[in-house]
Amino acid sequence: MGHWGDEMRHNGFATPEQLAILTEALKELGGHLPLDSPERDTLAAEIMMLFESGVETLEELKAALSSHKNSPRV
Known about the structure:
Layout: H1 16-30, H2 38-52, H3 58-69
Helix pairs in contact: 1-2, 1-3
């Protein structure tokens, strides 16, 4: 329904600045998880899905994912 401009859809590409934000989001939200854990992989996938849908700032990513923290993960 909304307008999807080039800024909203990245098709798997990120600028160095965007990559830094994605990396920081994973570090802040999943830094306590082992690098090879399925939970960290899931978190990384969630971050990428949000990024692909237009969520681009660290604050927006953290806000969107904070609701998942309240849900128990196994």
